Amino acid sequence: MSRSANRRQENHKISRELFVLTYGALVAQLCKDYQQDEDVNKCLDDMGYNIGIRLVEDFLARSAVKKCRNYSETADIIAQVAFKRYLGVTPSVTCTKWNEFSLILDKNPLVDFVEELPAGRSSLCFCGLLCGAIRGALEMVNLAAEVTFIHDSLKGDEVTEIGITFLKKVEDKKKKKNK
């Protein structure tokens, strides 16, 4: 491997570790700022949503993915391309209904340095940022979705499972005006 390719790989690893540590510090600060887990969860979801609506442009520009024809293809692209690109993991995808999918992470990179939830914070959704980011990105490509944690390894589950329910395809406002 060339020296520059090795350096790029090292930089990617360093920046991922820095992101994970910074994210943990962010959640810790939110726990200090807010008494209720629901407030922290809402804040993380809102932050994730804002990240998702901005991240989708970078994703579409760099990934060269084609327009998805159905929800199944969309779920596969989220797992195989987006998660791999931004978090370095590839969750498996399971389908429960024609519009419901689960992303199953055997290893959640956001909890690399976290052993357990803080005491008294059992309803904290530590990785709630992920749900918001997925929801925001999907909304930007005109797909309304509900995104929730079904299982969480920090709460004693074997894996982390994120559920995505596609609600409807949102019609583009430009298309409505032209009709």
Automatic annotation (TrEMBL):
<keyword id="KW-0333">Golgi apparatus</keyword>
<dbReference type="InterPro" id="IPR024096">
    <property type="entry name" value="NO_sig/Golgi_transp_ligand-bd"/>
</dbReference>
<dbReference type="GO" id="GO:0005794">
    <property type="term" value="C:Golgi apparatus"/>
</dbReference>
<keyword id="KW-0564">Palmitate</keyword>
<dbReference type="GO" id="GO:0005783">
    <property type="term" value="C:endoplasmic reticulum"/>
</dbReference>
<dbReference type="InterPro" id="IPR016721">
    <property type="entry name" value="Bet3"/>
</dbReference>
<dbReference type="InterPro" id="IPR007194">
    <property type="entry name" value="TRAPP_component"/>
</dbReference>
<protein>
    <recommendedName>
        <fullName>Trafficking protein particle complex subunit</fullName>
    </recommendedName>
</protein>
<comment type="subunit">
    <text>Homodimer. Component of the multisubunit TRAPP (transport protein particle) complex, which includes at least TRAPPC2, TRAPPC2L, TRAPPC3, TRAPPC3L, TRAPPC4, TRAPPC5, TRAPPC8, TRAPPC9, TRAPPC10, TRAPPC11 and TRAPPC12.</text>
</comment>
<comment type="similarity">
    <text>Belongs to the TRAPP small subunits family. BET3 subfamily.</text>
</comment>
<comment type="function">
    <text>May play a role in vesicular transport from endoplasmic reticulum to Golgi.</text>
</comment>
<keyword id="KW-0931">ER-Golgi transport</keyword>
<keyword id="KW-0449">Lipoprotein</keyword>
<keyword id="KW-0256">Endoplasmic reticulum</keyword>
<keyword id="KW-0813">Transport</keyword>
<dbReference type="Pfam" id="PF04051">
    <property type="entry name" value="TRAPP"/>
</dbReference>
<dbReference type="GO" id="GO:0048193">
    <property type="term" value="P:Golgi vesicle transport"/>
</dbReference>
<dbReference type="GO" id="GO:0030008">
    <property type="term" value="C:TRAPP complex"/>
</dbReference>
